[in-house]
């Protein structure tokens, strides 16, 4: 299979590209940054926002069997501070869709649990998204992105598959310059012996180890390329909630050290409770996540050790 990946220098994109290559698939990655983790992923630097002005000005080296669109400004709080980046997310999605339209191939889109908003329900199944409650500009950019994806299915007959990811963590995510996610952020503070600020002690989230995420995405790519799945939206997560308090304690345990913890209220735009209903992924894709947070944190700690950061 030939898979074109946008956002291929990012956390999920890098893991996905390497996993596809391991299976013998051909990948081509595009991103507006170099990949700092590996030089094994062929590709080039393309700015998908700039490309949206003239989508026909770039084309991949071969006709892809599938476009996996992962490029985005992917940090919720950053988009609260800089909401124009939410608009850029839509422009990137437009560019990716135009690539798929030119190739007449399926599109897989990396959406987010953020589309559900902060609904305080324990478990969230796909039909529960209510688009009037966009919690943040990031959330709006994913809702808008999903709508654009489905519009291409309707108007141009592209088979589409949307994954709603949730707090993906694991190797190839530790990027202080790009505003870190909660797990690498806490890890770094603990390793440096600095206090942690936790926004929302009882905030409950569904943390997904990146290998589970990538396994699910690959099943989805296969299913949409084979025509077994078409125009669908699927939650991809571990399917279990953990509070930030639990997370901090797991990190203390894995790192065998403790720092001071300052608990503050959640910040504007943040989801405070989300546990995915992953029964659709199980049913349709045979998805069966294998790595709970209790196992994933030690794996992530090992990866930090392999990088010489601990
Ligand atoms: N990791 C998670 O927890 C999570 C959760 C929900 C949804 N998602 C979504 O999944 C996708 C992948 O997430 P990730 O964790 O790998 O994020 P990431 O930030 O590590 O990767 C995104 C990549 O997109 C690239 N990009 C940004 N602007 C670009 C542009 N103008 N042109 C080309 N490339 C550009 C970035 O350089 C980056 O490498 C994103 O769309 C994100 O919103 C991720």
Give the SSE layout:
Layout (H helix, E strand, L loop, with lengths): L1 E5 L4 H13 L2 E6 L11 E3 L2 H4 L14 E4 L6 H6 L2 H20 L3 E6 L24 H20 L3 E6 L2 E2 L12 H11 L3 E4 L4 E2 L2 E2 H16 L6 E5 L5 E2 H12 L5 E4 L14 H7 L7 H14 L4
Parallel strand pairs: 1-2, 1-4, 2-3, 4-5, 5-6, 6-11, 7-10, 8-13
Antiparallel strand pairs: 9-12
Helix pairs in contact: 1-7, 4-5, 6-8, 8-10
The structure holds nicotinamide-adenine-dinucleotide.
Provide key terms for this protein.
310 residues; Rossmann fold; 13 strands; seven-stranded parallel β-sheet; 2 domains; single chain; binds nicotinamide-adenine-dinucleotide; alpha/beta; UDP-galactose 4-epimerase, domain 1; two-stranded parallel sheet
Descriptive overview:
Helix 1 links the parallel strand 1 and strand 2 (26-31). The relative contact order is 0.15. The chain is an alpha/beta fold and 310 residues long. The chain folds into two domains: 2-167 and 209-236, NAD(P)-binding Rossmann-like Domain (Rossmann fold); 169-205 and 240-277 and 292-301, UDP-galactose 4-epimerase, domain 1 (Alpha-Beta Complex), CATH 3.90.25.10. The protein has a seven-stranded parallel β-sheet with strand order 3-2-1-4-5-6-11, sandwiched between helices. Strands 7-10 form a two-stranded parallel ribbon. It starts with a strand and ends with a helix. The mean pLDDT is 94. It has helices spanning 11-23, 48-51, 76-81, 84-103, 137-156, 182-192, 210-225, 244-255, 279-285, 293-306; strands at residues 2-6, 26-31, 43-45, 66-69, 107-112, 160-165, 168-169, 196-199, 204-205, 208-209, 232-236, 242-243, 261-264. Helix 4 runs parallel beside helix 5, helix 6 (182-192) packs across helix 8 (244-255) and helix 8 (244-255) packs across helix 10 (293-306). The protein has ten helices and 13 strands. The radius of gyration is 19 Å and the shape is globular. Residues 7, 9-13, 31-33, 46-49, 70-74, 92, 110, 112, 165-168 line the site of nicotinamide-adenine-dinucleotide (NAD). Nicotinamide-adenine-dinucleotide binds at residues 7, 9-13, 31-33, 46-49, 70-74, 92, 110, 112, 165-168.
